[in-house]
């Protein structure tokens, strides 16, 4: 059993910097959990507390049912993979991977067997006698993974392990790490600021902001049913477009545009039924807006096209919508009508709109 439980975990740095507030959730045995959030939200601090590299100010941390708050990092049975890989440049790949086993005084034949097994899994067999300096970035990343795997730990803890790789290699390695984790079935916590990485790799994703957990759920649930405006805007790329609007009966008024909301929305959100001139925040994902001439829908608004970025399979169309926008990072920030904040829409490539046009947009 390698379930990891965080119960009301707090971290205060120094006298008064409260970096983590009452973090509570469970990571199931064998689960791939991603901590995601903007820079400074506390995701590395949370991971480092699980690893034992940072003290826990208050709360209880358990690994496999055992309280480990006061347990030394080396006795927690977790293996950390760092962003920098932390490889020894003068040691061979074999020696790098073997290092934690040497430290643990594992007998030599057993070390050889486990290193070769890990190398096989990671396709490093041909490189075992080379030095890290002679390897590609992706191969170095795999050596760092190898060093974690040989220990056969109860959990892997990974802190932005792909951030030193170029964009193409990142995409390849994220698939490799995710499939490796599923094959080994080892409970994993993976920290990233990249929501695409979080969505593609995690069984579940914990979204954090300013030291507080915002929502923890499957990627699809975060996308479909965000708990708050921050999660709505953080998950999805380009970001969800957010506006202040008014709901009256079934009519939604978005600045100078009005349209009727389909019944399906009220079925999902019964609390909205029967609203009378109620202020609401409306979120519209870029992929849920298209040129009404190409793909008509009952809900339509008029918008001015400010920029068209043709990407081949779709066009990113920037729209000025005459309605007060909401700043995703700061839900209290609301812009004025017409002050230039653009919505982004993913239009079908069949759309012929151009900058300067007034377009009818289907939602
Ligand atoms: P990033 O993606 O930039 O690494 P993060 O989400 O991992 O960010 P943390 O490194 O966990 O954020 O830091 C959370 C907050 O705690 C930040 O405001 C940071 O400045 C602060 N912090 C981190 N380490 C310390 C420390 N040793 N002493 C004081 N404050 C710290």
Kindly describe this structure.
With 363 residues, the protein is α+β, with helices and mostly antiparallel strands. The protein folds into two domains: 4-234, P-loop containing nucleotide triphosphate hydrolases (Rossmann fold), CATH 3.40.50.300; 241-362, Nucleic acid-binding proteins (OB fold (Dihydrolipoamide Acetyltransferase, E2P)). The protein is built from nine helices and 19 strands. It has helices spanning 43-51, 93-103, 108-121, 137-149, 167-184, 195-201, 219-224, 229-234, 263-268, and strands at residues 4-13, 17-27, 32-36, 58-63, 66-67, 78-81, 155-159, 187-192, 204-209, 212-217, 241-248, 251-254, 257-260, 278-284, 290-291, 300-310, 315-320, 342-347, 358-362. It has a six-stranded mixed β-sheet with strand order 6-7-8-3-9-10, with helices on both faces. Strand 16 (300-310) and strand 17 form a beta hairpin. Helix 2 (93-103) packs parallel to helix 4. The longest helix has 18 residues, at 167-184. The mean pLDDT is 91. Adenosine-5'-triphosphate is lined by residues 13-14, 17, 19, 37, 39-45, 193.
